[in-house]
Amino acid sequence: MVWWIPGFPLIAFAITLLVGRRLAEPVVAGIAVMATLISFVLSTILLLHPGTPGAVTQLDWLTVGQTHIGFGMQTSHLNALMAFVVSLVSTLVLLYSRGYMAGDERFSVYYQYLNLFVFSMLGLVLSANLLELYIFWEMVGLCSYLLVGFWFFKPEAALAAKKSFIVTRIGDTGLFAGIVLLWLASGSFNFDAVFQAAQSPGFGLGWLSGSGLITLVAILVFLGAVGKSAQFPLHVWLPDAMEGPTPVSALIHAATMVAAGVYLVARMFPLFALSHAALTTVAWIGGVTALLAALIALTQRDIKRVIAYSTVSQLGYMMMALGAGAYAYGVFHLFTHAFFKALLFLTAGSVIHALGGEQDLFKMGGLAGKLPITRWTFLAAALALAGIFPLSGFWSKDAILTALLAGGHGILYAVGLITAFCTAFYIFRLYFLAFAGTPRDEALYAHAHEGGWVMTVPQVVLGVLAVMAGWWNTPIGGHPIERYLLGDAGTSFFAGTSAGDIGHVYPENVLWMVISLVVALAGIGLAAWMYGARADQRAAAAASAAGPLYRVSLRKFYLDEIYESSVVRAGKWLARIADGLDRFVIQSIVYLASRMTYAAGWGLRLLQTGQVQTYGVVAALGLFVLIAIAMLRGGVM
Amino acid sequence: MPDLIHAHYFVTMGPLLIVTATAFIVMVLEFCLPRVDARVWLGLSILGTLAAVVTAAVHAGQRALTLNSVVQDAFSAVFSLVILGTTLLILWFALDFARREPQAPKEHPYLILFAVAGALTMASAVDLVTLYVGLELLSVASYVLVGVRRQSARSTEGAVKYLLMGSIGSAVLLYGMSFIYGLTGSTNLYDLGQQGMMLWTNYPAVTVLAFLLMLCGMGFKLSLVPFHAWTPDTYAGAPGPVSALLATLSKTAGFALLLRMLLFIFNGAPQVYVWAGVISAATMVVGNLAALPQRHMKRMLAFSSVAQAGYLLVPFALFGASGYQDWIALFDSLVFYLVAYTFMTVGAFAVIWWVSRQTRSFDASVLDGLARRNPWLAGALTVFLLGLAGMPLTAGFVGKLYLLIDTVHLHEVWLGVLLFLTSAVSFYYYFGWIRRMFQPAVSDAELAGTVLAADAGVFTFGLQFDNPPITPHPGDEHWQDDVEGVRVSAAPDETGASDQQVGDGSAGTDARPGIVLQTLIAVCVIGTLVLGVAPAVLLHGLWAVGWYQ
To answer: pTM of this prediction?
Structure first.
């Protein structure tokens, strides 16, 4: 059964690839949505009956020397939860896309790519070994590239596609190096074999001791996660990736693919748990990312960019939780975040759709009346993101903050709290700018309207989830998701770990809950004061009062400029030198070689006279020469 | 009296007996009923072959020896199955051939079966004399098959060249065998295996000489360089299914014979295998280089199959450098590549036969725009060419990868490097065809879109060819040279690139291959892709056979 979870999207991909161009739009979308829906139903069954965690069904795929590499599916509580989230959000986004992309001349191609993405993503979260995971990892990267550059005739989109692919590739290189090192040291690509080898005393490689190797590999694997999950300093690609269609942003760049980095760290958690240094790195990179991205999001003018930086920030939150050892909380936040962040993008898409493609916040305003469903669902998602009781974000965010404080990470707790304040501020700044007050651009406002049911139904479903998804892990129910996730510990999925290794669990503390709630409310209050209906010029006054600080945030801490002047410029110089070498040295050698090869081919034709006598003479001569040399050299060469 | 089915000679020779019996039945019936359509006899042959496949599969796990000269072991089981599978593909191909060319002679079916009987003997005999008889049975049947179209000058010429060169090969092989017999007084491979060490220590010079003579003698049959010159003329002259038979079935059988013969006789002389490496290197280089300027499609496939024989000889060069344990990997690589090669080659010959029949020309230019005229056919040929070139996700890639791993593993890296480099050269001519098929099919609007996409950096899979023109643009001066070149330097009676094989004027209107040819091509495509994506399908089976049991 597990095979069919990625199987159905693959079938849908094959159908749309082969005959998609000839089918009508509703048929293409219908096939895709149905396939994903079946995957979702199967994932739900798997979620409820996951069987023995770590069970693998796999086929022999390749045999290299003594290494047998399989290709298969592994089930566990973590994988089942991920498959559930991915297939659920995919189904809704595929349905929504039917409305958003209607009329696009490459409509079927769009669904092709999306089907391929859903297949790859489900394959990724169900992979049975590291090599398979890496293959799917690259495939989701490829799909992201194709979809970000879907409107490739826009130069920004093409550039953004290139940027996203190249920047994540930097991280992928690290991941690949980590996988190869693990294979060299353990002789296997299988997770359980790798984990067991890492815990054995003889683990090591050449001059690298066991603990050194584990730290190195963990950080290399984390580098892959940094690229894919847009963590500092490789986060720069994600905001640019917003050039893709908005449903793509919701699916790939909010709920699923960018969370793959978090999943990777969670999947490899037994390895991270063995290295204090690696865990600390993860926690601090996560913390820095969370704060930095939240500060940048304060001042952005583009509606999608604000949400994109919010995604980066929230992914940092998850990393922070994993780094602090709170495995279950990090995954829980991934779970709730997938719903409310996908919803934020879908509602933003609805706004953009209603305004005919306008993305500038300062041209919106007063949309609450025109787009009631979008407004209310957006409000639900915003409250969830801000962490307001009792919406989903509150429970997962508060769990992380509790874990940070109780785990003795005081500074990170402060970082998390400041981030929470900024988060509440920027998302309500967005809300007030877009939905409250009076329209700033009457022409745009006049045409605004809700999309059809295909667009509103996914919003409403996600809205319900954004409100309620957190209730599955409240103290009242006895933390079901937490217990569910920790069920993986000690099985062959997390070979050689105990529940204590992967799950630091902390009881809720009502005082700390109140603190984070007050901080979030303060953020919302400030936003209301500055951008609310009666705000007048307070925002501009605040901006000029903040002065340079405001500009630093607006210009995204000048990171793009720093990269441009250092890495990119150095790269361009290197490229120029390489180009010169290539043009004048290598190309002429290649040209010469190809000419000579070709000439040799022509020369050989001279022997091909068509006369059988010549053939016989050549053969006899060849035989004679061979024997003569062999005899002269005594039979050996 | 023991019952026939369970007698040990039925275990060892069951498929052989069934195929031979079918051949005789078809021969007699065909003589008695001359008016019956050749397809009936082909159908009967296919049924016989299927029975042989079942027999071979049922007995695959058993081990037996008959008359000290025919054996059923893992080796003969695997190679018999490969040979019989290839036979089915070729008979299927011949079925379509017989439908399209009803005036073709009807000797076809039973001659193919006699060739198969010879091939099965080569795979399962353990006596030099029996092996040789099998080889001659295959060869003689092939000579006749090539020349079966008596009215075609090309066909007769190909047959005569093949006959002459093949006879030289047989003579050289026999000469080598006679040395071995002279030294040991035995022709039985088990006896010879016992004396392997003695041969090398006592008579090194004669052993090397015998090795070279036997290798080169088979080199004529397997079209290894420098004994390959007959190959393009013969393939070009033979009917489509027969070309495919020569390129696949007779090579499989030849490699099976060579493998068993050399491993038994020269097991005590690891040093001599290096000469297989030398010939393999020469074959890879010359085969690929000579294929470059070919414009006649069948001649190019012929040179390509010469090059592929060079790849297949790579494991032979490694037997000397390795212990018995490593041999298993070499057997696996060899069989895998043979199977992959069979699918790709039969498929390519089938597509080429069809296209040239439609256009009545063997010149590569008839492929221009095939993707637009018949996208499925173009897609299939692309798969075969990519496989032959060794692109990932095809069986050819996995096969080459295993050969490469073997060379690295056994420290004969130079062969691996050569394998890699010559494969790179081969991309040139394989991709030339692919470009022909797809390039002109692009309309102006689409082309503009592609250029835009390329500019934007989205999804460019382009391969830049800015060196000599194998597929020149019209108006390019080299274009003229090329056509002239074909005229002056190819076989004497070759007039440009047209050929007489293509029958009467009824062809050309029917633009779609029949269901028979379609299934053949589909099976080959699926084989190529499945083995490329999930090689374990075959490797697991080979592993389960266990070579030494």
So the answer is: 0.69
